[in-house]
Amino acid sequence: MNSQELTADLFRISLRDEKIRKDKTQCVDDASIVHYSAGKEVMNAIVFNLEFIKLDKRF
What we know:
59 residues; mainly alpha; 2 helices; 0% strand; elongated
């Protein structure tokens, strides 16, 4: 695992923890949904930024 993957993982974990605290999530099923959605948002942001960087380098 490289440093970018570790950073993304820590970012996802911190987003998930904050959302669980903020929404006062107590049900395990709801926490799983929050965990999945936070991971999906982080991965989408990473993919978007990588594509943007690739496009930017072409010009």
